[in-house]
Amino acid sequence: MYNIKSKIAEEFISDSEIRDTMAYARENKDNIELIRTILSKAREGKGITHREAALLLECDNVDIINEIYDIAKEIKHKFYGNRIVMFAPLYLSNYCVNGCVYCPYHLKNKNIRRKKLSQEEIRQEVIALQDMGHKRLALEAGEHPVENPIEYILESIKTIYSIKHKNGAIRRVNVNIAATTVENYRKLRDAGIGTYILFQETYNKENYEALHPTGPKSNYAYHTEAMDRAMEGGIDDVGIGVLFGLETYRYDFIGLLMHAEHLEATYGVGPHTISVPRLCMADDIDTADFKNAVPDDIFFRIVAIIRIAVPYTGMIISTRESEKSRARLLELGISQISGGSRTSVGGYVKPEDESENSAQFDVADHRTLDEVVGWLLDLDHIPSFCTACYREGRTGDRFMSLLKSGQIANCCLPNALLTLREYVDDYASPEVKEKAMAMIQRLLQTIPNEKARATADKYLKAIDEGQRDFRF
Ligand code: SAM
User: Fold this and answer.
1) What is the DSSP letter of 272?
2) Which of 105, 229, 243, 275 to mutate to test the pocket of ligand 1 (most atoms within 8 A of CB)?
């Protein structure tokens, strides 16, 4: 039944394989010798299987857990250095025909004010985002064939890329919209999107169907096979994730890794990103009604083990998490975070709209982008606004081979410093500017390749003179 390369949802996400894996993990959780062999393999940075990962997650030995954290940190540094990529979500429309029982956009919710941005409103939102310093967005929309057809999404992407306000520019638009057809994925690719992101919510079919009682999203196979269609449509950067809290974390953790393995085995390229959202309070949604909430300590282990299992993937955490959890999660393998986010439609121009009830969920981190950037610098992470890879055609397996070749220090580090320098000149507060300039000066010297270092230095001077958008 389990077939990693099958394109049928119930074969590459096999329920019996997940259950067998859970049983294997339970049976071996005290087998320290076996666990140690997995840890040695993990240290090599080539990933571990879903079975091995499930066993690590089941183990409650404190020394082993601390070792897992250390390995996750090492791997994060090996592949991503201390760079943290910044992004912001942009909510286009909260019209939705689905009945997802955990989401305030569900069709029956009459409290929420339905809203869809016009192209002019998108322009205003994008200018507000550019004025904060953002270069990378994640577009979000409910599923509504009449209000939010693919043409609306495509037009919006075009509008976003066309806006040049002062030195601002959105250079990468990632898209998180409902599962769609190969033809539509091809259109999204042609529109120049970065990553196509779709959360599975849960991999448990029975539970999935209960959580999605009505609407097109209720089709488990169509949703689960979406990334296969996206690949067929030519999108080779795809982002997966589950909404932790809907199903038992053990089940979805294994399903998520099996999905990553399926993509890697079938297309030669694993997920570009993995997101780890946890269910939040929202209008008409009470988290107390869901029995599978994931406590912090387990959540931290989940993040660390995903980092170990899929070393090359970008790992994303949103403002659903508090400053405190985010600080810890950055240590355990997260490589992308959002900052200054608004989850309401039109919320960047009119923050008061949050109280008008169009928000998707309650954010836990309310800081401005500048505050988040300053905080990252204090924690010795490099806030990066880099979007170079996909603009240089380094997507899919080409992106993965850059990571695997270890050229990060000569390519990604300078790109991070250059985009941070742009942020400093155009948007940073005086305190953040001082901290960032010190970091840039210090890290410029650590670029190993002499030629790359000299070029980065030349570009930094050009930025100082007002030029923009240099990249390696
Ligand atoms: N409509 C698209 C779809 O069907 O996939 C995606 C857009 S939706 C705005 C983005 C994600 O928000 C969903 O995939 C879901 O995981 C998450 N979400 C929904 N309700 C949530 C809640 N109460 N707390 C946290 N995240 C939530």
Assistant:
1) S
2) 243
Token representation of residue 460: 């930094």
Q: What's the whole-number average pLDDT of the chain?
A: 96
Q: How far is the CA of 246 from the centre of ligand 1 (A)?
A: 12
* Three-state secondary-structure class, residue 383: strand
Find out whether 354 and 347 touch, Cβ atoms under 8 Å: yes
CA dihedral 64, 329, 308, 75 (to 10 degrees): -100
User: Cα–Cα distance between 277 and 274 in angstroms, integer?
Assistant: 10
Whole-number Å distance, alpha carbon 256 to ligand 1 midpoint, is: 16
Distance 242 CA to ligand 1 centre (A): 10
Best probe residue, ligand 1, of 116, 199, 284 (max atoms within 8 Å of C-beta): 199
* Distance, CA of 338 to CA of 91 (rounded, Å): 14
- pLDDT tens-digit series, residues 298-338: 999 999 999 999 999 999 999 999 999 999 999 999 999 99
Residue closest via CA to ligand 1's atom 18 equals: 103
Q: List pLDDT tens digits, range 98-152.
A: 999 999 999 999 999 999 999 999 999 999 999 999 999 999 999 999 999 999 9
On the CB side of 463, CA atoms within 13 Å amount to: 24
Q: Rounded to the nearest 5°, which phi and psi values hold at 410? A: -95, -10
pLDDT in tens, 378-411: 999 999 999 999 899 999 998 888 887 877 778 9
DSSP 48-82: --HHHHHHHHH---HHHHHHHHHHHHHHHHHHHTT
Helix, coil or strand: residue 92:
strand
Distance between CA atoms of 288 and 317, rounded to whole angstroms?
22
Sign of torsion over alpha carbons 89, 94, 96, 98: positive
Extended strands (E) in 67-167: 83-93, 136-141
Mark 255-279 as b/e (b = at least 16 C-beta within 10 Å): bbbbbbbbbbebbebbbbbbbbbbb
Q: Are 1 and 16 in contact (CB under 8 A)?
A: yes
Write down the H helix ranges in 212-332.
220-224, 226-232, 249-267, 296-309, 323-331
Q: What is the pLDDT of residue 390?
A: 87
Tell whether pTM > 0.85: yes
- Residue 123, H or E segment: helix 119-132
CA distances from 304 to 56, 159, 271, 463 (A): 10, 38, 17, 37
Q: List pLDDT tens digits, range 19-75.
A: 999 999 999 999 999 999 999 999 999 999 999 999 999 999 999 999 999 999 999
